[in-house]
Design a protein that fits this description.
716 residues, alpha/beta, Membrane-bound Lytic Murein Transglycosylase D, Chain A, 7-stranded mixed sheet, Peripla_BP_I, Leu-bd, signal, LysM
């Protein structure tokens, strides 16, 4: 190839390489072999580990030097990124002392720099005569000695301020920067310890390779490439989608050897993933745990090895604990995902750490100030008529069985119980009198005002509070776990189920004035639904309603009301409308057990209509809790309050036994399920932790059964 043609072909590459040639730098490439380390390679080439790290941007520390990686070795010390004034360079590296060296015959500057692991510039700086005269036998030189540098710390990192974009999470940003979430928290200690929340526009401190920026950085990983016959820089650049000058920059020996040569082994950037912006719109994320391997990971994440490596090219350098991997969003089907993070399935009973000794406080309104335990008849009457008493005593009876159960598993629990007497003043007195230091969880109180009071004091001590029956609060409490799902969650679950089984049925909505939100939500899912006219906000205009029923399609009637009399009337009308030709089912998105279990409402009618509704609890079966409860309380069957007391308490105790911090455990534990309740807490930043686990229940042959998700297929 002629010189003119060669220069023309290299184009910008020649200009770019001027800076390398200006410093008379020489390079070699080295394919890392099994057993080699950064230290051993640097000794082999007689260069400092630091200079190898500087020349290979993708290598951040000694641990990143793996077999089959191609390294550029600068044979004359560190690469100078850009020319700096000598004064600035002196400030950067200062010697800790000097040693004397008398020059022998045939010694060279290069040989001295290799012997003492210094650069030529450093040698000349402290022996200024070498700037003007050659090295001569007999010269006595001052050899600067520099402090030993740990290879882990050698790659000096600058930091940049990163502005969080909408729909980004801690995991998506950690993946983007190739760091662990733990590293992100170390760099940004102001980030919340109880929440994973990131606000769009929030500024974070993140690492940036010196003299580089993430936006300009095209690649971090490289692949080995053997040059075939007749390959040109232009065609190679086109094939890999990188400019010719970048190839020369990565492989300085191309210039030294006068261009690409057949058989030359060079390194090229791995082809980039073009799957779009890395945020929760496009991806879900997984944080690698210790002792995991690729095979098990692909099985658990339901993804092929090829796709996993394509999306996460960093895996070429090996799987490391703390790595954040991105996965296609559609892979979320069948995985437990929270805040776009894939959670590992953890068996809490098998994951107990016996060193954890949880300290738990109960605050419930037992009303011992009003109950005369000597008057059995009156006490029984009070329990039967007062919901707060029935709830507290039932809840606590189940909680005691949970404490028995956790004790049998070998976990020691410190328990204190306080009677709030359904009085906010009493709660204030308890908080003032008692020392809550070291408490891991407070279960209760029940009343909204008392709950707010406790939550504020507990937050100052970083103590989580579990609300036994509340689903929300007028105030924001970042430390409160609301164990009952919000009405909106129940409604979304119900409508999602309905949409899955919908097959062009005739939908009719009956909603009173208090249920306008439910009315609008149903209509948004089923725009063709008919609206039934209600008289005096409590009964149907019968003739007009019957005209809306179809004889050719199954009729789906949504009833949205809390009025027992209206429920009774509508179920009676719908029941009488059922014939061979007219098929009717009834649903609601706003289930109120007090209204539907009222004596005025016929269970037979509900069963005939296969009445289906969302619920935060299900009927208790004959499981180990029910048997333990009956054994403890002389054969008494647990009511829903007792079931709830056991489920809420056992869930908290198992999570604390796994990791003695409920905030930390909630980040890594997905849905848990017990006798009659499930818990899947989602953190809503400063508002608290909200349970989003609930059930779809259906009346069937005078029994109430849970609609399993597997049953959806048979209904379709």
């Amino acid at each position: 190839m002629g010189m003119k043609k060669y220069i023309l072909q290299l184009g910008l590459a020649v200009i770019f390489m001027t800076s390398f040639q200006a410093f008379a730098q020489e390079y070699a490439t080295h394919a890392v072999k099994e057993g080699e380390t950064l230290q051993s390679i640097s000794q082999q080439y007689r260069v400092t580990p630091y200079s190898i790290l500087q020349a290979n941007k993708e290598i951040k520390s000694a641990s990143d030097v793996k077999p089959n990686i191609i390294l550029v070795i600068p044979l004359k010390g560190p690469i100078v990124q850009k020319e700096k004034p000598k004064e600035e360079e002196q400030e950067e590296i200062k010697p800790i002392g000097f040693t004397r060296h008398r020059v022998r015959r045939k010694e060279t500057l290069f040989g001295l720099t290799q012997k003492y692991e210094i650069t030529e510039e450093q040698l000349k700086r402290y022996n200024r005569e070498l700037y003007s005269e050659p090295l001569q036998k007999g010269m006595v030189l001052q050899i600067p000695q520099f402090p030993e540098v740990d290879p882990e710390d050698e790659r000096e990192l600058d930091f940049e301020t990163y502005t969080v974009q909408p729909k980004e999470t801690r995991w998506s940003i950690a993946h983007k920067y190739g760091i662990t979430v733990d590293s992100l928290l170390v760099l940004n200690p102001d980030l919340s310890k109880t929440s994973n929340y990131l606000a769009a526009g929030q500024e974070l401190k993140l690492p940036r390779p010196k003299g580089d920026s993430l936006k300009e950085q095209q690649v971090e990983l490289f692949t080995s490439y053997t040059v075939p016959p007749k390959m040109t820089l232009y065609s190679l650049g086109k094939e890999y989608g990188v400019p010719s000058d970048s190839i020369v920059k990565l492989n300085p020996e191309i210039m030294a050897q006068g261009g690409l040569k057949e058989g030359m082994v060079i390194r090229l950037p791995k082809k980039r993933d073009t799957s779009g912006e890395v945020n929760t719109d496009n991806f879900i994320f997984y944080e690698v745990k210790p002792k995991q391997n690729i095979f098990r990971l692909t099985q658990n994440l339901k993804i092929s090895r090829e796709e996993l490596f394509r999306l996460n090219p960093d895996l070429e350098n090996g799987l490391k604990a703390g790595m954040v991997l991105k996965l296609p969003k559609e892979r979320a089907e069948g995985l437990q995902v929270k805040n776009a993070l894939v959670l590992d399935k953890v068996n809490l009973v098998d994951s107990i750490n016996l060193e954890n000794k949880p300290k738990v406080v109960f605050m419930l309104p037992f009303r011992l100030d009003r109950i005369d335990l000597n008057d059995t008849k009156k006490t029984q009457s009070q329990i039967a008529t007062r919901r707060d008493l029935a709830l507290s005593l039932g809840f606590y009876s189940g909680a005691l069985v949970a404490l028995d159960s956790i004790k049998k598993l070998g976990v020691s629990v410190d328990v204190k119980t306080y009677d709030t007497e359904l009085s906010q003043a009493k709660v204030k007195e308890i908080l003032f009198r008692e020392n809550l230091q070291g408490v891991n969880a407070i279960i209760g109180p029940v009343a909204a005002g008392a709950l707010n009071e406790v939550a504020v004091v507990a937050a100052s001590k970083n103590i989580p509070v579990i609300a036994p029956v509340a689903s929300d609060s007028e105030l924001s409490h970042s430390n409160v776990f609301f164990s009952v799902p919000r009405e909106q969650i129940l409604r979304e679950k119900m409508l999602s189920y309905m949409k899955k089984i919908y097959n062009n049925e005739n939908v009719i909505i009956i909603a009173d004035a208090e249920h306008q939100v439910a009315h609008d939500s149903i209509l948004s899912k089923f725009p063709a639904a008919q609206i039934a006219k209600i008289i005096d906000n409590k009964s149907l205009h019968l003739d007009r309603f019957l005209l809306k029923l179809s004889e050719t399609k199954e009729n789906w009637v949504f009833l949205e009301t809390d009025q027992p009399n209206m429920i009774s009337s509508v179920t009676s009308i719908l029941n009488s409308a059922i014939t061979e030709d007219v098929k009717v089912r009834m649903f609601t998105t706003s289930y109120n057990n007090n209204a539907y279990e009222d004596d005025a409402v016929s269970n037979t009618h509900l069963s005939n209509l296969r009445f289906t509704y969302p619920s935060f609890y299900r009927e208790a079966g004959n499981d180990f809790f029910t048997k333990a409860y009956q054994k403890r309380y002389n054969g008494l069957r647990p009511d829903r309050y007792a079931v709830r007391g056991f489920d809420v308490t056992y869930d908290v105790l198992l999570k604390l036994a796994h990791k003695n911090n409920l905030f930390e455990t909630s980040k890594i534990i997905g849905q848990t399920e017990y006798t009659g309740n499930s818990f899947d807490y989602i953190n809503d930043w400063s508002s608290g932790y909200f349970n989003r686990a609930c059930y779809i229940m259906e009346y069937d042959n005078l029994q109430i059964k849970e609609v399993k998700q597997d049953d959806l297929k048979s209904n379709l």
